[in-house]
# Entry
Amino acid sequence: MASKIVSLTLNGREIEIMVKPLMTVQTLVREQLGYTATKAGCKQGGCGGCTVLVDGEPMQSCLLPVEDIAGRQVTTLEGLTPSDGLHPIQEAFYENFATQCGFCTPGMILVVKALLDRNPSPSREEIVDSLTGNYCRCTGYEPIIQAVSDAAQRMNGR
Amino acid sequence: MTTKEYFLPQSLDEALNILAEHPSVLTMAGGTIAMPLINGGISMPEMVMGLRQAGLDMVSQSNGTVSIGATTTFSQIMDMDSIPMLQEAARNVGGWAIRNMATVGGNLFSPPPSGDFAVALLALDAEVKLVSHKGERMVPLSEFYTGFMTTALEPGELLTEIQVPVPEGQTAYLKYGRRYANTPAVVAVAVHVVMDKKKVKDARIALNAVAPHPIRATQAEGALVGSALDEGSIAAAAAAAAEACEPFTDSIASEWYRRKMVDVYVQRTLARLV
# Structure
């Protein structure tokens, strides 16, 4: 087993970790470091539950070898959440009933963060387009789409 | 996970060396085809080579040809405006996160119903560059596919680049899936038509998800050439495409339905050019 030492920045903190060949970012954050907001859903890149941001871009952590992103910035939902209270996107999801079981929520919120960073006032179509890779099996998508519009307004108001 | 060695070459040379030294190595780029199989235990490669850092993601244009590095992602293609059909095809691959990972080169190796980008390259008469220690060769994409999940790639060769002529005529692309986006194709259609004096001078019609690999519908193309692009010739071309394709049944659609939809979607795609 040719394990390697990889350095990267996780949620603003520089870390150095030992990884087995082909170990994924999902396994790193969930199993090695205990950041369990990133979910393990289909492990096929199909559900979006494991989405993380790499240099601000959404990627499926279940398909991403840690070594591939050495030196880059990884953000999980833990990195977005302030130490006191909630991020405006989280507030908007909470208040618009966009969360039921919550399994898809971390991936959704990270995609929305990436969307609003690029486009502070997205149209409904742009919101839907950005979230096509994230499956929700509880609420239906309508409250989620409303939450994204609401989050955009909250963030623009600040 | 049974993988004992993961190689991450930093250059093409290094990648070719690894390939020469370890012929059984599994090559991947974005990981969106290989990693699901590995995660699911369907593929258990001892050695894997990832191309994400090999510097094969350059896009350039000269003398009417766009050269796309094999590991260029679909998000990169969507930022590129030289060939609008490629942007449209890229938009039809996966969701946002997948488009940030999946690559143009990888799409040429993905089994149907995947290959929704490759079908556009086929209609544009793209060529692929295959490189090994012995040298390099260009192969037309139409000759690259040899069967279900088999290609003209020889052992020791790497697909490094896709060369796409800037289209001379009009293009259109339509994908039909079961939902709005991030969905496997029932059928995907890409067309390139050159007109001369209101008659079709040259036509290329490519289909995906209705054969063991993305195909050119040559009978349909023949039905168009020399005719005006009107309802009659379009209907004839679509009927020829539906007859000649070799659809399959999977969880997305039946063989019967796919064939019907080839007829409908070839008509709709061509109608966009009228």
